[in-house]
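ugh ok fine here u go
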Amino acid sequence: MQMNTPSRSTIRLTRRGKLVLVVTGAVVAGTAVAVPLLTLGDEPPKPVSLVIPEGWRASQVYEAVDKVLALPVGSTAKTIGKAGLKLPHDAEGNPEGYLFPATYSVVKGATPESLLQTMVDAANDKFNGAPAAAGPQRNAMNVYQAVTIASIVQAEASTRNDMGKVARVVLNRLARGMPLQMDSTINYALRRHTIRTSSDDTRIDSPYNSYQRMGLPPTPIDNPGETAMRATLTPTPGDWLYFVTVKPGDTRFTSDYTEHQRNVAEFNAQQHKSGQPQQSPSRTAAQSPAAQSPT
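structure:
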């Protein structure tokens, strides 16, 4: 499907905004009480907040932690192997998907390990608590698989209103044994953010190549928020198998491949008007079911 996810410097897991450091401090008003004035050196450290937007990848979170803790670039990433994060067994030590998007207080003495564990704890609370944990069971999946789907929904949906429909497309294609063919998984494999995927891109050798491989990618591809997870657990009813965003705010969902081709043609016409390269149907969304062959 076409991925209309701009760089994570915008959030919308790239689109939700840049890292924001929120600094707050107490305002001391003068009163008649004789209170010694604090000198600058006596002032307590001001609390700092770390904002993790929905849809950021783990690599972006690591960079943000390095920055807020004033550590050399790459420091947080190097701690993952020894951090001992309380992740699901299926994650195999990879926190992707479980660095929950939220605003976190950075207290004195905070370390990369402590900040990441706080994010993982928040994710576990959100994803494993009732009734959230019951949702995956209704859809014959475990919680980790649900988080993986939610990460795709987070990356692919142009608007929050589209998330339930994107989730339904993913579930419908899985139920039919069709490859997902999501550009967002290709972008994750190539460590980039773009809305354009070439034919060569779809042939890369990667477990995240959902054009060539069946089923879900091996891990989430970003860290989804509550809305994407909710859409995954309670997807919009429908028989859609394809979608393409023709222009901002106009995403077309259909179960008919011929109709989808017409939508893609309209998308290409819009690209032509703006001077952008055209995109083929096989790259903006999945191919016809008749054209599928398991790989």
